[in-house]
Structure formats: C-alpha cells, structure tokens
C-alpha cells in the first residue's frame, strides 16, 4: 500500500529570482530579520519548500507574524516588509481599498 506522502520541491524561486533550497534559507538561529530574509522565508512557504507550521517552528515566529509578512508582500512587495515603512504602506493600502 502506498502511503500518502507530501512531495516537496528540491528548490523554489526566491524573491530575487535565485533558487532557494532548505540549505540556502536563513539559519534557524536568525534574530535579525532584514527584508530579504523575510521574503525568502515567505517564498519558501509559498513554493512548498516549507509549511507555515515548519517555518514558524524553525524561526520561532508566531503565526500572526508570519501572516503579516505574507500580507505585506502581497500588498506592497518586498518594500512593504521594511519595518520603518510599515505604517506608510498600511495607510497606502487602506486608501486604495476605499476607492
């Protein structure tokens, strides 16, 4: 009997167009989250390299924190992940939703 196993890709395309593998992802001990690293983790989850639960466990993230990264990328792309610009992009998105 064949067991139902999840088939994962060996690599996915990262946010800058480069191939991402499990080994090329930010290390689990990462504490400084720059835009590129956040985008790489989101790309890995979106591409099926990691599940949301695995990413949260691996990087000690809350589900809400990871979801906010995904929303920021969906709304504003990589610049939306900048901590210093969060309020600007949030306001811009809300204004766009009104019209």
TrEMBL record:
MF term (GO), any: sequence-specific DNA binding
Cross-referenced InterPro entries: DUF1153, Trp_repressor/repl_initiator, WH-like_DNA-bd_sf
SUPFAM superfamilies hit by this protein: TrpR-like (SSF48295)
Protein name, as recorded: DUF1153 domain-containing protein
